[in-house]
Design a protein that fits this description.
Number of strands: 4
Number of helices: 9
CATH topology of the largest domain: Glutathione S-transferase Yfyf (Class Pi), Chain A, domain 2
Strand order of the largest sheet: 2-1-3-4
CATH class of the largest domain: Mainly Alpha
Structural class: alpha+beta
Shape: globular
Distance between the termini: 29 Å
CATH architecture of the largest domain: Up-down Bundle
Order of helices and strands: EHEHEEHHHHHHH
Amino acid sequence: MKLYGSLTSPYVRKVRIVVLEHRQDCEFIVEGPMDLAGNVARLNPLGKVPVLVRSDGEVMFDSPMIVEYLDGLAATPLIPTGDERWRAQRWHALGQGMVDATVTRMMETRRAAEKQDPGVIGRQEDKIAVALRFADDHIGTGEFLINEAFSIADISLGGALAYLDLRYTRDWHSAYPRLSRWFGAINSRPSFMETAPPSG
């Protein structure tokens, strides 16, 4: 298999963590979505990363879909079954939403100052703030979010918090020390450390 994506994309990083946790044979090829003549543009009609090319040549895109596919290949899944599946997927959705809001805010702040919409920035910051409060209220006291086992819940929330640290300058750690401690432990996991984005 081949995975195309950038080093800083939180969506790509989520897939890379799943690959590492499952020890799957998947070549990671660094390529962003902006190269109109590149593989991402050729393979994904949406022109976004990540893009997964299976061994049989079938193409998959959108990180939740790719994660579901890769997890289905594994002997020990990261997406639990039964009621725990929906609890885990709720965390997955929360992390995905936090990343979406952070990306939208970042893209707006990168526009020329006179073209920025403060309303867009403010709405995304509100979403991030509410999501952080929800996460802090619901993380519990264990090392992991679901049944004391590392899962997609931890990957998604941990990845989202890491992306906040990369792209959002507000200090959420001081406001939510319990969440910060949980994140510190998750972020030191080998799969997180190996996929840490460049700071630039």
